[in-house]
Design brief:
The N and C termini lie far apart (about 55 Å). A two-stranded antiparallel sheet has the order 1-2. A hairpin with a 3-residue loop joins strand 1 and strand 2. It has 13 helices and 2 strands; from the N terminus they run H-H-H-H-H-H-H-H-H-E-E-H-H-H-H. It is mainly alpha-helical and about 260 residues long. The protein is globular and about 50 Å long.
Amino acid sequence: MSDSIQGSPMPFRRLTLAAALILLPATLAGCADVPQSPEAKAEANAVNDPLESVNRVTFDVNDFMDRLLIHPLTELYRFAMPDYLRGRIANILSNMGEPVVFANALMQGRTGAAETTAERFLTNTTVGVGGVFDVATDWHMPAQSADFGQTLSSWGVASGPYLVLPLFGPSNFRDALGLGVDMVMSPWQYLAGIGGNGTQDRYDYSDFAADGLTRSDQNLDGYDALRSGSLDFYAEMRSVYRQYRDKQLGVKTSEPSFDEIP
């Protein structure tokens, strides 16, 4: 690596990962199986998962890594950290995500949501001691949902086929692109990069670990219940993800409700 790159504050690892997420859908599009018969085409359109064979392999690898590493680490995290402290960590991470929510809400034309997000960030950063305490919610400033995948949806971009991302899990072509853009938009990586490679490395590792453990902690019980009660864990995760995403986007889901899943 050249000296000019080493001395730059730009977080190249994250930018590289973001670029991979942005380019991955286009790359995988060439791997899609094209159904031949009208019946097969109709079924494929309904499922909208032309990369199922690739997705299932990625899903199995993700699930294996979860059983081998993520699940045990999450159980250790729960054992070592009481509920109260885990809640404070989750609050800090949520507060750090507010600038990206604010930017996306503006791009979606949701000025009210953007204003609420800005007020939440200022309130929780100051009165809430850097986001440790979610004072804003108690003061009637509820958390808003806005990411670049939603922004693309508001601009009329279709979701595209279902896609399972390594490490990140269920997604689709539009949301994979959105995830990559959101990673680039986060301001904290650039601030950490100002301190040099050492500061950037510590930020990258700690942020990745804290975010991963927090998300796993919040979803562990539901994930385990879904896995144990599934005849086809992959298909049910696909259905649940689409329900969750449709609810965020405010659209009527075409998937069966969670209660209807066998």
